[in-house]
What does this fold into?
Amino acid sequence: MPSDPAVSVSPADTLKEPPSLRTLFFAFAKMSLSGFGGVLVFARRAIVDEHRWMTAEEFNETFALCHFMPGPNIVNLAMVFGARLRGIAGGITAFAGLLLPPMLLITCLAAVYDHFEHADVLRRGLAGVSCAAVGLLASVVFRMLLPLLKKRDLLGLAVMAAVFVAIGVTRLPLQEVLLVAVPLSILVTFAKARWVR
It folds into this structure.
């Protein structure tokens, strides 16, 4: 029986040996220390492109799952991803790598900012950094969108566009939109799977 080309093998399934706890810690530490404007851009690059620990689709699915857990999405991603590769110890290690180095750095920078907060050059610098952060976020959103575009998943794209319009344009409450969008997305996915069969 020929294999289905649409079904891809997960890099996590083909890993000969999962990364060590030390590798996980330093990978997430590097992501967090690089993550000006948010860690998501660097997390995706490291996990999907650099280390190939997940496919682009797996990353999108895992990140989507992390949106529905309490707490910051990227912290949830670190815990879920670390636990997937190395169990509870991996989740804790990825969590520590993500939060510990920037926490120490931010504590030092907060002391410096407290001393120089009224400096005009600092305000202008922060304004410039915020512009770069928006560009980074836009680039990762586009890259996360590519798997949907490649699959030509018109229903998925329609649901995504509807959620964007509902939250981003009409400013409807996030919780109410998700209460409608999540069951709708699940229903559409199951309906498509049955229809393809």
The chain has eight helices and no strands.
